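haha ok so turns out i had the wrong file open the whole time. this is the CORRECT one, sorry everyone. sequence first:
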Amino acid sequence: MQKIMVIEDDIVIREELTTLLQSNGYQVTDRLPCDLALLDINLPEENGFAICQRLRKQSDVPVIFLTARDTAEDEIIGFGVGADDYIRKPYHSSVLLMRIARLLKHSVTSVINVRGLVLYLADMRISYANQSEELTKNETRILACLMKKDLCTREELIEDLWNNSCFIDENTLYVNINRLREKLRRIGAVDFIHTVRGVGYRL
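then structure:
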């Protein structure tokens, strides 16, 4: 059962969302790990923008802002801090469920397994032989590329990271590859990343 994290301070709306989601086969939680996050913006202690920024440092799960704030500036900020969708209150239940299903469908391939090395994309974590290690966002994207293709050129890796708003050059890529190799070594996954001289890298 897929878990949806709901961060909403209005008790009535939170209960409505919980009933709606549970009746459609989802499990509701208020913390990680989850498969998708529904965030309000106007919260008593920490606003939704700050929560989304903090969430993005440790997870790539889809994020939907569900909020009464309806200005274009708020929506731009929402997407800028890493949201995948922005829905204004009052919301239509069928539309919300459709958008949740769409985002979850795109994230179903969030686990990649190659020769016993398992990459959990949403949690930015790898496991091998019953040991695990946390990854940074850059390391996760690099390893995902390597696990999906026979060969990844340096240009492909740099372009992928650049398109995902991570400034990176060849030297930064080299540093990330070495850190990734060290983390793999620590969990016993030695000799996984190979350098193809003058081209790039492969598993």
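The longest strand covers residues 3-7.
again sry for the mixup
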